[in-house]
Design a protein that fits this description.
The protein is an alpha+beta fold. The chain contains 3 helices and 4 strands. Strands 1-2-4-3 form a 4-stranded antiparallel sheet.
Length: about 110
């Protein structure tokens, strides 16, 4: 494996961590027996299934669609911010396109190098 592939693999791990931290709902200060804590925990468990693949010429981000009633509208409302966050993480070097219909489990954001 070349150093460049290792470098982009490490970048993708870092970006995955930052994206998950951006998408997660806060659970601090909530009682563990409350409905709000359960909803946030369930939403966060789906967000942790998100994936980032990064190479020199291509970017692919798969964000897991939450299977909760309040999770999908929350992700839809936050969608422009998610795309902006991914663009900023990559220093706006990739032209991004989003696809919400091709996979039933993931929203996909693909990018090619400008």
């Amino acid at each position: 494996m070349s150093w460049q592939k290792i470098r982009y693999f490490i970048f993708s791990l870092i970006q995955r961590k930052q994206l998950i931290d951006f998408l997660k709902l806060p659970t601090t200060g909530l009682s563990k027996n409350s409905q709000a804590y359960y909803a946030a925990y369930n939403y966060n468990s789906y967000m942790k299934m998100s994936k980032v693949k990064l190479s020199q010429k291509r970017l692919e981000v798969k964000i897991r669609i939450p299977e909760t009633l309040d999770g999908i509208p929350l992700l839809e409302k936050n969608w422009p911010n998610v795309i902006d966050k991914i663009s900023r993480l990559n220093l706006r070097r990739y032209t991004l396109s989003s696809d919400k219909t091709s996979d039933q489990y993931y929203y996909i954001i693909e990018g090619t190098r400008k």
